Amino acid sequence: MSSALTNLLQSLRIVPFGSKAMVASSEKERLKVTDLPEISLEEVAQHDSFDDCWVVIYDRVYDVTHFLRDHPGGDDVIMDHAGRDATIAFHGTGHSRDAVELMRDFLIGELPVKQHIFRTGQNKVLSSGIPE
Ligand code: HEM
């Protein structure tokens, strides 16, 4: 796996399969993450306007309403994904580690496990879908 991708996954507290050391060191974070409120895709879809904008990135839900105007990439690129999954667009842009850390300020919940694309119920990344 490329180091840039590994950094991104670590910042997101995603533990790739087979990384035993990371499982141990991220245990505390993982437990905290499981306390996140569960928010379904159907509920996220209700928040698709400039005044009320939620997006899903790596199976987690972010309320970016008050960040839209400040987003260095512009409000329009986020609004293109308002109320929906923005993971591929977010990842494709190649956001910095600082940007990934900033996301935490807007984290409000996580999708139900049955709607996850990128994580298993144990918060591990599914092996398919993420390029090496
Ligand atoms: C909570 C969600 C997001 C946060 C916290 C965030 C944060 C940032 C930050 C801090 C930058 C400055 C460059 C960097 O540090 O990487 C940036 C740039 C950018 N972001 Fe986001 N972003 C978010 C979501 C998105 C989404 C969903 C898209 C969808 C396409 C997007 C597209 C871009 C683009 C195109 C740039 C400009 C890159 C450039 O000009 O070099 N961002 N973002």
Q: Can you put this structure into words, describing what you see?
A:
The protein has 132 residues and is of the alpha+beta class. It has a single domain (3-115), classed as Cytochrome b5-like heme/steroid binding domain (Flavocytochrome B2, Chain A, domain 1), CATH 3.10.120.10. Helix content is 35%, strand content 12%. The protein contains 7 helices and 4 strands; from the N terminus they run ααααβββαααβ. A 4-stranded antiparallel β-sheet has the order 1-2-3-4. A hairpin with a 2-residue loop joins strand 2 (52-57) and strand 3 (60-63). The longest helix is centred in the N-terminal third of the chain and has 9 residues, at 3-11. It is globular and about 35 Å long. Residues 36-112 form the Cytochrome b5 heme-binding domain. It is found in: Membrane. One of its GO terms (molecular function) is metal ion binding. One of its GO terms (cellular component) is membrane. Its main location: membrane.
Compact overview of the structure:
The chain has 132 residues and is of the alpha+beta class.
